[in-house]
Amino acid sequence: MKIGILETGFAPEELRDDFASYPGMLEKLLGDVDPSLEFETWTVLEDVFPDSIRDADGWVIMGSKHGVYENLPWMIRLQDFLRDAVSAGQPVFGICFGHQILATALGGKVIKSDKGWGVGVHQYAVDARNSDWLSDSPAKIRINAFHQDQVVEPPKGATVWASSDFCPYAGLQYGDNAASIQPHPEFMKPYETALLQARYDLIPDDVHEAAMKSLETPITSVDFARSLVKFMTRKRIKSAA
């Protein structure tokens, strides 16, 4: 299966020599689960888009420093692309900004939350009742987060599969072939640590201190990666049947 990665943001410049790009992090996460997966990245942030939704078997939208409410031209074009891919029955999955722009494209609302920064390791309750791809997921997952914006009004018909007190709509699903998550399963501890240090001036001291402390908690991103691979690949099997 070929997964198309839609790149919507870059790591801070001072971290790029030491860490992979966000698409590179995702390839490592998913490729370790299923080495047969193929990947191709389109940097939509720079208006580099696939020629067709059929250029890949499924799509993953990555994170970004941007807010979807900026309504930049590439964001509008991306929303059109996502609606087309979802309508065509392709597997589509959003991460952080990807979670937010997928919700926006399908009729939801995203704002800069008055709850402030969600950073460090966050724990989410998982509701797998309507999501067979989560059948092997634990009841709680712990994943690194880095965001201020949140989905505050899910699109009509969306189901919530992951939630926390801080982020009630942390995981959303739309029918059988589109879903998303607010935190960053591709962020491992070294990168989350470096990013927190690089963005120290943006985050209140008490929030930053708590986030650094939270990094002592083991994350379950590798376990979640198995669920994500199941989500992406099961669609292809169904469509071929």
Could you walk me through the main structural features you see in this protein, from its secondary elements to its overall organization?
Residues 80-194 form the Glutamine amidotransferase domain. This is GMP synthase (Glutamine-hydrolysing). GO terms for molecular function: GMP synthase (glutamine-hydrolyzing) activity. InterPro entries: ChyE-like, Class_I_gatase-like, GATASE. With 241 residues, the protein is of the alpha/beta class. The protein has one domain: Rossmann fold (3-Layer(aba) Sandwich). It has six helices and eleven strands. The protein has helices at residues 22-33, 73-87, 97-105, 189-198, 205-214, 221-240; strands spanning 2-6, 38-42, 58-61, 92-95, 109-112, 118-126, 140-147, 149-153, 159-163, 171-174, 178-181. The chain has a nine-stranded mixed beta sheet, sandwiched between helices. A two-stranded antiparallel sheet has the order 5-8. Helix 2 (73-87) links the parallel strand 3 and strand 4 (92-95). Helix 2 packs across helix 3. The two termini are 15 Å apart. The model is unreliable at 235-241 (pLDDT under 50).
The SS-based structural class is alpha/beta
Spatial order of strands in the largest sheet: 2-1-3-4-11-10-9-6-7
Helices, by number, come to: 6
CATH homologous superfamily assignment: Class I glutamine amidotransferase (GATase) domain
Low-confidence stretches: 235-241
The CATH class name reads Alpha Beta
Q: Let me know the largest β-sheet.
A: 9 strands, mixed
Radius of gyration: 16 Å
Shape: globular
Instruction: Please count the beta strands (DSSP E, at least 2 residues each).
Output: 11
How much strand content do the residues show? 15-25%
The CATH topology turns out to be Rossmann fold
Q: Report the span from N to C terminus.
A: 15 Å
Helix content: 25-40%
Assembly type of the chains comes to single chain
